[in-house]
Design brief:
Elements lengths: L40 E6 L6 H7 L1 H7 L2 E6 L3 H10 L6 E4 L2 H11 L7 H10 L2 H6 L1 E2 L2 E2 L2 E7 L2 E4 L1 H7 L7 H13 L17 H24 L8 H14 L14 H4 L17 E2 L21 E4 L10 E11 L4 H10 L2 H9 L21 H10 L5 E4 L1 H4 L2 H16 L4 H11 L5
Helix pairs in contact: 1-13, 9-10, 9-16, 16-17
């Protein structure tokens, strides 16, 4: 069902918002393509609850004002459990934000309730998103869900001020990073800190470590083979990558600065893992752009500040520079014109910029290339957007989010926790391999 296209300028409507049944007005020119949706409601279901929901709600205001539609927002901490229940009972939302591609594929395969993306969404995705993000929102070659927000995961957090005071240089290769770690040890410091405790999701930060190192050591093609189970989870390449990580995280001379010994990595929360950077009891912490939210209010997070981030360096410099990314996706369970219009809006540069402006505290980015980096709130957000818009880089989606749930959000998490607490690489990778669901 195609979207109604209206003429530019909104000359046939009056006022600066929704007044007396009229819509449009000044600033609504980009919204005429969605048509007159006065009186229409679109239900939206997400896992994003108060207070984090307010920037999302604010980002729809212009769409509502210019089209006359009403977005009915519902956030729930029980989202992932309740969404399938609502679908099965015949009461799905019009639109839902899906946090992982694996869940999207499950919903498409098992319920048949997800509607393929309309043409306007497909056009936006083709124009404004890289193939990596389009593929993650597709099932069997059909686009079902456009990307929403995004994450850049291949970052190492550090203190520019501490580095400058100590005479340390940001490493540009893995070998330089190891040499810097050795220098910090020689000077009496602990170079690394980490924390993987995250309640029922304990272990997930180590899945990102392994994904990043698989990319840097073996390249994107082998990474895809591993994620798709075209090579076994306990392939020698995977074992070598995990052992390389062990050279950092299982090295008692390197960790766990300010927090304890190697065993403290498993008991330290994800949120606390990088905080010792601030008092220089550690100097580096590998974590995604969203980790910025865990530093205390007022922390100077900038290129010359108390903390900032640099890209995790390459291992094999003959491989393309590859960045590990994540995202949420917009799935629809109805194909009414107003629902398709809202889907198209959420995949547009207009929404990406409205959402950035509506998030003045920072911590939100999009892979939409129509997003103006100047509209995001923080220096690390801007760096992340610039990386996502750099056509020279190769992007690969978070592997655990693409794997079957029995692995990606179960045995992979458990196995990495077992590994950091003492189990061998061989035993852990064999355990995860054996958990992979049999092909139907």
């Amino acid at each position: 069902m195609s979207l109604v296209l209206a003429g530019c300028g909104g000359s046939n409507v009056a006022g600066g918002g929704q007044t007396g049944g009229q819509t449009g007005g000044a600033g609504c020119e980009a919204y005429t393509q969605y048509g007159d949706l006065n009186g229409k409601q679109i239900s939206l279901y997400t896992s994003i609850v108060a207070p984090e929901d307010q920037p999302h709600i604010d980002s729809y205001k212009k769409f509502e004002e210019c089209t006359g539609a009403k977005i009915v927002y519902e956030g729930s901490k029980e989202f992932e459990a309740q969404l399938p229940v609502r679908i099965q009972s015949g009461n799905p939302p019009d639109v839902a934000y899906i946090p992982q591609p694996g869940l999207l594929q499950t919903l498409v395969d098992q319920t048949g309730a997800v509607k393929p993306a309309p043409q306007a969404v497909s056009a936006n995705v083709d124009q404004y998103f890289s193939e990596t993000f389009k593929s993650a929102g597709s099932v069997d070659g059909t686009l079902y869900a456009a990307p929403l927000g995004a994450n850049v995961k291949s970052f190492v957090w550090y203190s520019p001020q501490a580095f400058q005071a100590k005479g340390y240089t940001v490493p540009t290769t893995w070998d330089e990073m190891v040499a810097l770690s050795d220098k910090i040890v020689a000077e009496g410091g602990k170079p690394w800190c980490a924390g993987i405790n995250s309640g029922e999701a304990t272990g997930w930060p180590l899945t990102d470590w392994l994904e990043d190192v698989m990319l840097r050591e073996n390249g994107p093609d082998v990474y895809d083979q591993w994620v798709n189970h075209e090579i076994p989870f306990n392939d020698p390449k995977v074992a070598a990558a995990l052992d390389r990580i062990g050279g950092i995280l299982k090295n008692p001379a390197y960790v766990n600065g300010g927090l304890g010994d190697v065993s403290s990595i498993a008991t330290t929360t994800f949120q606390d893992g990088g905080l010792p950077i601030l008092d220089e009891t550690c100097y580096m912490h590998r974590q995604a752009n969203f980790y910025a939210a865990n530093f205390p209010e007022g922390t100077d997070i900038s290129e010359n500040g108390e903390v900032f981030a640099f890209p995790l360096p390459p291992i094999n410099t003959t491989q393309p520079e590859t960045i590990l990314v994540g995202a949420e996706f917009v799935a629809a369970f109805a194909d009414r014109p107003e629902v398709q219009a809202f889907q198209a809006y959420l995949s547009s540069p207009e929404w990406a910029n409205e959402k950035a402006i509506a998030t003045p505290e920072g911590g939100w980015i999009s892979a939409n290339t129509g997003l103006d980096p100047n509209n995001v709130a923080s220096a690390v957000d801007k760096l992340s957007v610039e990386i996502l818009q750099d056509e020279s880089k190769t992007f690969k989606f978070d592997g655990s989010d693409l794997m079957p749930a029995a692995v990606g959000s179960a045995s992979f998490w458990t196995g990495m926790t077992d590994w950091i607490t003492g189990k061998s690489t061989t035993d852990v990778l064999t355990f995860i391999e054996q958990s992979w669901p049999a092909q139907s």
